[in-house]
Design goal:
It is a multi-pass membrane protein. The chain has 20 helices and no strands. By secondary structure, the protein is mainly α. It has a domain of about 240 residues.
Length: about 475
């Protein structure tokens, strides 16, 4: 595939995926605003403990074989069939194990109320197993439009089910239904679009090389998941499910618009980077372009959310959620640094550095757990602040390995990313000062602060980052007209 074709595929894929993810982000935040008026922070904290257990098992469902199929240059039908039946078997085992050991899991998590929800969500592992190979087929085809439609359909379906149930008087059951409906609809759509069907054939000797690569990806995924989500059982046990609910709500508000977009860009970039993994010059250009493009979006959103956290929470969630605004201010900045690490992982995966990802995951997870065990003694604000400080310290180290792998000078990356960050930080500080002196309603505060923030950020970019920012704006406007 030529460079021009790859660039066209990348831009088209990014357009589809970012648009779809932004749609999911807006509807997800809107649904949170509805559910928060009927459910308590403790109920959100309880379901987050269930999601922690199911999240670990979902990572183990395919042992990284889907990623291995995408990373390989040529894939045979036999390899796809082997991966499918392997995934289905693992998914079935995970489902049965979750059902059998749910009382013991609840005891470890420190809350017996999660036994019932665990039984209901256990089949989610089978749905994930059925989806794995069809999804890899679409990813290798760079069919990002079909992937986006599938995920949006799942998100809208899960939200509709949750809202309908909570309006009918259900509580935790509505959140369980939300967890289940989305994956089912997404799976059905992906299977339909891929037109892929398994055959009754299996060979472990064919599967083994895929497992060899995928096992490191899976191990890294489990450790990364623990690193990012281990605060759920720690906070739930050492503090309370209410504190956990506040923390999870802040994460959802922040990471829904930010991380959803990043994850989809990563999904677009990984198969593309895998096709040019031997061409470091093209990888460097792609890396700088995507990091800059993401930071141009993520930095103002992060600092903007930090500046207007209090009126946004009062308007979105209603009374009783003020602690979420405090946590959001710290979480937004952490998410901005996290976007850099997310794109670094694309480089590692495309280059086949699964072992390094696993080792890095162990290191970062160990540091995270130590930080949590120290800060949890001082309350939920200290926990979130500690995670922010740790992310800031680890990001340059992670970057150094990724940049060395593709021969990218670090200072060029600092210049590319530093300018939008400086523009956004100045904007956020100015908006925070203005917001603190406004005594009007939350809606009117946002109506004043958001346009002000956009104007200040654009002005800062034109002053500090004109050479890259103006062409990017022109490209976005041109594509919008088309």
């Amino acid at each position: 595939m030529t460079q021009q074709n790859l660039r066209s595929k990348a831009m088209k894929g990014a357009s589809f995926t970012v648009a779809g993810r932004l749609l999911r982000a807006f509807q997800g935040v809107a649904v949170l605003g509805i559910l928060s008026r009927y459910l308590s922070p403790a109920e959100f904290g309880l379901i987050s403990m269930v999601a922690f257990v199911s999240g670990i098992a979902q990572i183990l469902t395919d042992f990284g074989t889907r990623i291995a199929l995408v990373q390989r240059g040529n894939v045979t039908k036999l390899e796809e069939d082997c991966v499918f039946w392997w995934n289905l078997g693992i998914g079935a085992v995970m489902t049965m194990a979750t059902m059998m050991f749910s009382p013991w899991i609840a005891q470890v998590m420190g809350d017996s109320r999660i036994v019932g929800p665990l039984l209901w969500v256990a089949p989610i592992f089978v749905f994930g197993a059925l989806q794995g190979v069809p999804q890899s087929v679409l990813e290798r085809r760079l069919a990002f439009g079909h992937l986006t439609i599938s995920e949006v359909a799942g998100a809208v379906s899960s939200s509709a089910v949750a809202v309908a149930m909570v309006l009918l008087g259900f509580k935790i059951e509505a959140l369980i239904a939300q967890m289940m409906a989305g994956p089912i609809v997404t799976m059905l759509c992906i299977m339909w679009f891929s037109r892929w069907r398994p055959r009754l054939q299996f060979s472990y000797s064919v599967l083994r090389p895929l497992l060899s690569y995928g096992s490191y990806v899976t191990a890294a995924g489990v450790v990364q998941f623990l690193s990012s989500q281990i605060d759920r059982p720690i906070v739930g046990n050492r503090l309370s499910t209410t504190d956990l609910g506040y923390s999870r709500m802040a994460d959802q508000i922040v990471f829904t618009p930010l991380r959803i977009t990043v994850q989809m860009v990563r999904k677009v970039m990984f198969p593309i980077m895998a096709t040019i993994q031997e061409d470091d010059a093209r990888m460097r250009r792609g890396y700088l372009t995507m990091q800059h493009g993401l930071m141009v979006v993520m930095a103002p959103v992060a600092f903007g959310l930090w500046a207007v956290a209090h009126p946004a929470v009062r308007l979105l969630l209603g009374p009783g959620w003020d602690m979420v605004a405090v946590l959001m201010g710290l979480t937004t900045i952490r998410s901005m640094f996290g976007t850099v690490n997310d794109l670094n992982s694309v480089i590692f995966s495309a280059k086949g550095w699964a072992k390094f990802q696993f080792k890095w995951s162990i290191f970062s997870a160990s540091m995270t757990i130590c930080t949590l065990l120290v800060t949890v003694n001082y309350g939920i604000v200290a926990v979130v602040a500690g995670k922010l400080v740790l992310t800031i310290l680890l990001t340059p180290i992670n970057c150094s390995f990724a940049l060395r792998l593709i021969g990218q000078p670090p200072m060029e990356v600092v210049k590319v990313l530093g300018r939008p960050v400086l523009s956004a930080a100045a904007m956020g500080l100015a908006v925070a000062v203005v917001q603190a002196h406004l005594t009007i309603s939350p809606l009117l505060q946002l109506a004043v602060c958001i346009p002000l923030g956009v104007a200040l950020y654009v002005a800062g970019q034109l002053l500090l980052d004109r050479a890259r920012f103006v062409p990017l704006l022109r490209q976005i406007v041109t594509r919008g007209r088309r």
